[in-house]
Amino acid sequence: QGEYFVSENCTRRCRCEANGQMVCFPLFCGEDEVCKIQNGQRDCYPASTDLCHIYGDPHYSTFDGKLHHFQGSCNYTVVTGCDNSSVGFTVTTRNKHRGSPTWTALNSVALSMEGLHIALRQNKAVYINGALASLPASPAPGVTVSLSGSYVRVATKLGLQLQFNGDHELLVRVSEKHKGKLCGLCGTYTGRQQDDFMRPDGVVVPDFNEFGASWMVPDDEWPCDPAPSPPVSCSPSEEEAAKKQCASLTEPGGPFQPCHAVLPPQTYFESCVYDQCATHGSTEQLCNDLGAYATACAEAGVALGDWSAGTVCAPPEACKFACTFDDDFCEWVQAGYSSIDWIRNRGPTPTPNTGPSSDHTTGDGYYIYLEGSDALPGFVAQLVSPVCPSEGPHCF
């Protein structure tokens, strides 16, 4: 008496009355709710979300957590509706070789919806229906495009969110209400990894290259070789070196340890080792992989802080904008192809005509000048500054 239950598809809520009769009422889940069981009770609950993470050269961690390393160099569908289900969106990506025939990386991302096409390109350039866009933008009801930290973020009311870092990393987050309705390189989102490698014809295949190639999207503007890249090979010594480079991902007490219980690092470690073999120990790729795990941890609710401190991935020190050459050359070095020399000096100069106003003869501070009496047209004298990590423009 007084107890109630919800029908299997959450279309009715029924209650047992005192007279032993059962009374049922229509039930409708809200737009952001799904029918599921929580704590043993079926009902309409807020929909959760799940993530497909694409990064590196490239690696795909599907919605169901399956990892694959498809290296195609064409355009591919990563998320779309399958089995004639209409989810209202399709996400495609374009891959490109980056200096090697054996591996590719993400080059751009496209979102297609009814009457809307959004392209996310390198360096965070955004094109909406073919026109370069300024951000933030709201190109359609319920759709926003904005900068969020180091990502371009696209949010929709259809239960889809994209985050692209303008280089190699894409995060595709979808609502639980799409569970079992999706296909593409991000998998089927059924809760089972076994059917993630499903081709457009509905056939599940064991080989990720066959699976990946089946989702190619022809594009006359992007000529590519549909044949899969040759497999990455790694000698035992190279593999051992790669594992050492990537070890910080799994080290107990390391910078990533706080995330291990929430998001096990093994698949990211495997991807990191794969990349170190493919790129012959690239530091840039190592940092991309470590950063990808840090991003995934943040998405899972674990903030790792400055994980790069003390590693090869740590950003260089701040630029010395206030340098006056009073102490030293401020890490500026003379270019090896200079024809005449830069000299740092203090006090009177060797000639009375030195300086822009012939006034550097009695100064107390240090200055730099060019020394040489035989300069000819075409001679080069150049000082090269240290790498400056700060975003510009800057005036010196």
UniProtKB/TrEMBL annotation:
InterPro entries in alphabetical order: ConA-like_dom_sf, MAM_dom, Mucin_vWF_Thrombospondin_sf, TILa_dom, VWF/SSPO/ZAN-like_Cys-rich_dom, VWF_type-D
Keyword annotations: Disulfide bond, Glycoprotein
Statement: the UniProt record of this protein carries the keyword Disulfide bond: yes
Pfam family, one: C8
Residues of the VWFD domain: 50-225
Record-annotated MAM domain positions: 321-396
GO annotation, cellular component aspect: extracellular matrix; extracellular space; membrane
CDD domains named in the record: MAM
Domain of life: Eukaryota
PANTHER family for this protein: EXTRACELLULAR MATRIX GLYCOPROTEIN RELATED, ZONADHESIN
Official protein name in the record: ZAN protein
Organism: Arenaria interpres (Ruddy turnstone)
Lineage of the organism: Eukaryota, Metazoa, Chordata, Craniata, Vertebrata
Gene this chain is encoded by: Zan
